[in-house]
Amino acid sequence: MQSTPPNSGSVNGELLDEKNQPEQAQTAAQKRQKSRHRASVACASCRDRRIRCVVPPGDSECTQCKRSGVECIIKNDDERRRPISRAYMCSLTERVALLETMLKEHGAEPPPANHPPKTRHGLPQDSEPSPQRGADKPSSNGPDNSSPGSQQDDFIDVDQLDQLDNQDSSSHRGDEVDAPSPTVLAPGPPRKDGMVNRLLSTRGHLSFDQLSGRLRYFGPTTNCHVHSELGNSHGSNSESSEQSRRAEKIVRSLSLDTYDYLMEVFWQHYNSVIHVLHKEAFNEDRETGRAQFYSGFLHVCVLAMGYRFADKTRPDIQRLSLPQKESTLHREAKYMLDHELERPGGIPSVVALLLLGDLEFAVGRDNLGWLYAGLAVRLAFDIGLHLDTRLSGLSVREVEIRQMTLWACVIYDKYWALFLGRPTSMKSTDLEIYSLSKQFERLGTCRPAGVEKSLETQIYEALLDLMELAGKITENMDPRSQGPDAVIDRNQYLRMAALDREFSNWYARLPDTLRWTPANINAAPFSFFLLHQQYHSALILLHRPFAMYEDSQQADDEASGPDSHFSALSRTVCTKHAIRVARIFWQHRQRFDTKQIFVTGMQHAGTAATALVAALAFIKDPVDRANNMQYLECLSAALQDMACTFQPAERMSVVLQAVMLELR
């Protein structure tokens, strides 16, 4: 049997004589050229996904369709092969000349012309998109148009995947739209180290995941499956396209006035309190079609949150309303969630899940909202937001937006932990940027709400420091470690007292612009009131387990001791800070509409009301009871206002009114 030389694959295993060598070499070169040849007319599937269509010699279908398992259909409708009307081109040329003449008459010099090739067939395949191609995108000048990024999402991701498949030959395309620069991968093992070294590396790193088309974080315990860059990543393109079309349809269904109103309400009443979105980056990506800080799913969630704070008496807002204080925008966002979870989109998906969690809480489904917030936290770790990316080659603004998104996840995590009395999911030891926040401002030079709202950003940074302390309350909840009949654990009480001093130090460090003074009360934004309400509510939550309200009657019958003394002190603290929360609500209602208060206002009112009800149950002095009842009525009025926006506030208001009737 004749053996085949190892290098004879290109000559079909036959030995050539000298005479046939030049001819055979030319044939082999032609075959190599054909194998790299791109089809002159792309098939329908590749054209829809905007990827290269390569048909191997002798095959009737392209490699992408064969890999995806779909039918390869080539349509004979190539625009490049159609003749260009000479008369039409002449008319356009005359029109351009006329316009240039008019510009010169007005003293303006037209810019020099940059003409494309004379025929469409002469266009290079890998050149940048021509102005004609850019003009095909939908206009984004008006909100009644669809999300401008929706038509580009699939092109961006799939083209980037194709770039990774051919990284050695097309590295010059690394700075295309939404394509992360090669330096982003610097924290991970370099490619030149080989697959073995990458597999054995004990460093956590960011790496490009071909399946999702995004940068993802992989820790040192990662197995070999995440290092493989093989696999079919094109199966979800149809879903992404459907997601974009659905978002486009939703945005177009809104009138220009309704759209502007919902967006303005979101920026004013939600994003100014907790900076979940960078306004400038969101709008820029929306206009340019980038998907780094914008997605159709996020856009719909933003509009749904804007409805939450909108004036429900407006006819256009009423048309969006559904029973149980829901909206059609909220329903559409939940419908789009299924597709989003199959292929999360980085930072936009993290922010959208945070917003969707608050939307669910606002209609009374706090269990589902907590799950959505947990998904956002897990996705934040998945895309490496917890890493220090200052030396990764990213731009300063991108690094700061990543940190801003992480801080939003941190503060939401702590809010949910306090509201439901559960442990936090994000620990400071897991976040590399915690050490940076001690040296710099948490948001750096980033002004997510705009330069004109720098005071709101300053308030938000103070809130981040406050919630860092408030998150520790969930770790010090039960003062009785031995059982329900045991005395107060002294060590727990000492830890509580130490945390109380940390809260006092935070309050003492507030700058003059954030202190509770008459001048600030009359001029500060409404987030200023929420900051101080959060401070007093946190102290109530810190002392309430040690107040032993359920044992107060028994303590009155027994001899006074250290435990009863500790409980009395904690009850006094709770009552004092509950009164201050009620006073802040009263001041807030003098300047702002409580119907548009941020979602955390419900917890502030509920926490203070519970402390006042507990105090009224055991206060005997008629004067003190009358004073506390006035503060309780103030909180009840605030909850009634919030009931127009949040369904849980309606239930809390009904319960509080029944309790007040019983106390009277």
UniProtKB/TrEMBL annotation:
Gene Ontology process terms (BP): DNA-templated transcription
SUPFAM superfamilies linked to this entry: Zn2/Cys6 DNA-binding domain (SSF57701)
Keywords per UniProt: DNA-binding, Metal-binding, Nucleus, Transcription, Transcription regulation, Zinc
Cellular compartments annotated: Nucleus
Top-rank taxon: Eukaryota
One Pfam match: Fungal_trans
Keyword Transferase: no
Location, primary (coarse class): nucleus
Region (Disordered): 1-41, 106-195
Keyword tRNA processing among UniProt keywords: no
Endpoints of the signal sequence: none
Cellular component GO terms, alphabetical: nucleus
Protein name (record): Zn(2)-C6 fungal-type domain-containing protein
Species this protein is from: Lophium mytilinum
